[in-house]
């Protein structure tokens, strides 16, 4: 079977867009040209690959199996070509893939996207959440360009510190506890008088309470940080979270930040990348941009 690389690009674009017209726009081709390419690919593999659905198309089981390998192969080829030619941000056409949590997207994405669009207008940014056990191999394979956050498990990766953070206790501004203790907790015994929220995707929100023998004070567990503002405003619950996240909530003026000598409360937030891409021009450019925007000096 002889495969035209352009047919794989057509497949990847349709799989991503789930719509032939949008795929044509992304590829800067006409819709008939994309449809013709899809027909050729269907004949080559002996499968319809995509079937009509409301608003566009959906992949067949065969297409679902093919998609990850094709996506990774195209990304590897893009990286190889750009590596040999250098990286000119003003002209480069490149998709950068970043590992970020939901709160990472909130903290990092707005400024990163705004600046990248100005300096590298033909690049795109995609975020994803890769299980930590798979993140190192994903970066080695080029499926993830950079990982943002506090990721002590990535010991085999290169990294650079963006800023230091620490955990605090957050609650609503009118909480009786905040009015009684102020902005600094003198003794951690007082923690046992609070009821807490924990965040399933951020283990420290619970492990800190376990270390303080206060796990029994957990009343609510939520999946993500973004649910916290409404929960805290409406209840007398508290949460242990990074101070920078708390500050992102604080402009609403409805929260009390309480400093406390929590166990292992200080940590570094950084960017992480694979040794294999340490000298990759595009990766180096993106790292430099992240350091410029977020590194504390």
Overall mean pLDDT score?
89
Overall form: elongated
Number of helices: 11
CATH architecture of the domain at 163-267: 3-Layer(aba) Sandwich
Residue stretches low in confidence (pLDDT < 50, at least 5 long) are: none
Helical content stands at: 40-55%
Key attributes of the depicted protein:
nine-stranded mixed beta sheet; LysR family transcriptional regulator; Arc Repressor Mutant, subunit A; transcription regulation; alpha/beta; 11 strands; D-Maltodextrin-Binding Protein, domain 2
Walk me through this protein's architecture.
The structure is a single chain. The chain is 44% helix and 22% strand. The chain has eleven helices and eleven strands. Strands 3, 4, 5, 6, 7, 8, 9, 10 and 11 form a nine-stranded mixed β-sheet that branches. It has a two-stranded antiparallel ribbon with strand order 1-2. Helix 1 (5-17) crosses helix 2 (20-27), helix 2 crosses helix 3 and helix 5 (102-119) packs across helix 11. The model has no long low-confidence stretch (mean pLDDT 89). Pfam families: HTH_1, LysR_substrate. Keywords: DNA-binding, Transcription, Transcription regulation. This is LysR family transcriptional regulator. InterPro entries: LysR-type_TF, LysR_HTH_N, LysR_subst-bd, WH-like_DNA-bd_sf, WH_DNA-bd_sf.
């Amino acid at each position: 079977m002889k495969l035209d690389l352009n047919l794989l690009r057509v497949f990847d674009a349709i799989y991503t867009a789930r719509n032939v017209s949008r795929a044509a726009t992304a590829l800067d081709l006409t819709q008939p040209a994309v449809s013709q390419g899809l027909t050729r690919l269907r004949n080559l593999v002996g499968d319809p690959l995509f079937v009509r659905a409301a608003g566009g198309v959906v992949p067949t089981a065969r297409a679902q199996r093919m998609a990850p390998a094709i996506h990774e192969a195209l990304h590897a080829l893009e990286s190889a070509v750009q590596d040999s030619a250098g990286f000119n941000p003003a002209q480069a056409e490149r998709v950068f893939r970043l590992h970020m949590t939901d709160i990472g997207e909130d903290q990092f994405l707005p400024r990163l996207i705004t600046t990248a669009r100005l300096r590298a207008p033909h690049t795109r940014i995609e975020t994803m959440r890769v299980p930590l056990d798979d993140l190192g191999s994903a970066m080695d394979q080029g499926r993830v360009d950079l990982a943002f956050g506090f990721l002590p498990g990535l010991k085999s990766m290169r990294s650079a510190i963006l800023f230091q953070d620490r955990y605090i206790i957050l609650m609503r501004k009118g909480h009786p506890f905040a009015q009684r203790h102020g902005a600094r907790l003198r003794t951690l015994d007082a923690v046992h008088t609070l009821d807490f929220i924990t965040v399933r995707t951020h283990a420290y929100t619970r492990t800190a309470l376990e270390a303080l023998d206060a796990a029994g004070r957990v009343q609510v567990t939520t999946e993500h940080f973004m649910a916290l503002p409404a929960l805290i405003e409406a209840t007398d619950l508290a949460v242990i979270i990074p101070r920078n996240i708390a500050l992102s909530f604080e402009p609403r003026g409805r929260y009390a930040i309480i400093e406390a000598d929590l166990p292992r409360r200080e940590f570094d937030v950084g960017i992480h990348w694979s040794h294999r891409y340490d000298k990759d021009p595009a990766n180096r450019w993106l790292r430099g941009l992240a350091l410029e925007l977020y590194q504390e000096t």
